[in-house]
Amino acid sequence: MPELPEVETIRRHLAPRLEGRRLTTIAVHDPRWCRPLTPDAMASACEGRRIERLDRRGKYFVVVLEDEAFLLMHLRMTGTLLYDAAAGTPHRRVTFSLDDAHEVAFCDPRRFGTGELALGAEALRAFFAPRLGIEPLAGALTGPALREMARGRRGPIKAFLLDQRHVAGVGNIYADEALHRAGVHPLRPAGSLRPRQYAMLAQAVTAALQAGLDAGGATLDDFRHPDGVRGGFQHEFLVHLRRGQPCGTCGTTIVKFVAGGRGTYACERCQPRPRVRRGPITAGR
DNA sequence: CGCCCTGTTGGGGA
DNA sequence: ATCCCCAACAGGGC
Predict the structure, then answer these.
(1) Residues A37-81: pLDDT tens digits?
(2) Is A2 designated active site?
């Protein structure tokens, strides 16, 4: 489950190995990867171009190619990018060959990962504008910014956090983690928090992602191992919210429920349930 | 052994 | 605005 810290960690490892190299060939083994673009169209647009930078926006990789061609990749749940993967590495979807005889493989057991193409700076902007909001690691995620975006919204705060159009890069684990750190219940209507809570939540999201990044940078050291990406990430820096386990802060049993359509873990002592709830009246719990 | 449920992100439709 | 379902598949429970 590559979340933002994993994506950023992979980017930092790969960037120095890719930047300045030329992309000689793109072998697309699974046409679904770049749909609706054909593998031929993807290849002809990118092959032969120099890689100027490897950037990131939210959970997207942005391979900045010369002449304003941008290859956008998303790992979704199980995708990985492996530098010089061992022969026979399973679930290989794409192979990018470089002019220095090295290669990068896009591997993805569940085949959800995607590759897209933006030609020109305007096309790049137009791709991200309707999809991604504030970059949380760029220092722009503040209490007032969060409060302003959430104003008037009745949906649960967790669904709001998971919506990439508001804050780019918050996944299920980090949403739970940040809400726990901020003492905010996942089902609180997004617009109903106190100003102080928006500030705490903004800080908690930033801190949780940064902690993940620190942990990833420390443990993710071998990109050539097929399981390198997944094996290196243990999420030990997280509060480790698990149903039936005691809360690390107060010892209350962690409960699981659905919020924003996702499995959600919370301590309902540290994160008090909202008094009023949406939808039909139901029995407690 | 095999069936069923769950988790995971983004997109699309109701 | 908000909710629900889908894509594809591993892995666990029963």
Answers:
(1) 889 999 999 999 999 999 999 999 999 999 999 999 999 888 889
(2) yes
Q: Which nucleotide is nearest to A74 (CA to C1')?
A: B9
Buried b (16+ CB within 10 A) or exposed e, A187-210: bbbbeebeeebbbbbbbbbbebbe
| Chain C, protein-covered positions (CB within 7 A) | 1-5, 7-10
What is the arithmetic mean of pLDDT over A118-145?
Answer: 91
- Of 3.30.460.10, 3.90.1030.10, 3.20.190.10, 3.30.70.1350, the CATH number of A4-128 is 3.20.190.10
pLDDT value for A3: 84
What are the extents of the domains in chain A?
Answer: 4-128, 143-266
- A64 closest CA partner among A21, A97, A2, A4: A21
Q: Which of A56, A59, A93, A181 is catalytic?
A: A59
A58: left (phi over 0), alpha (psi -120 to 50) or beta: left
Query: How many Å does it take to go from CA A24 to C1' C4?
Result: 43
Dihedrals phi, psi of A183, to nearest 5 degrees: 70, 30
Q: Catalytic annotation on A158?
A: no
Whether this prediction's pTM lies above 0.85 is answered by yes
Domain A143-266 = CATH 2.40.50.1070? no
Q: What is the distance in angstroms measured between the alpha-carbon CA of A155 and the sugar C1' of C1?
A: 8
Domains A4-128 and A143-266 fall in the same CATH topology: no
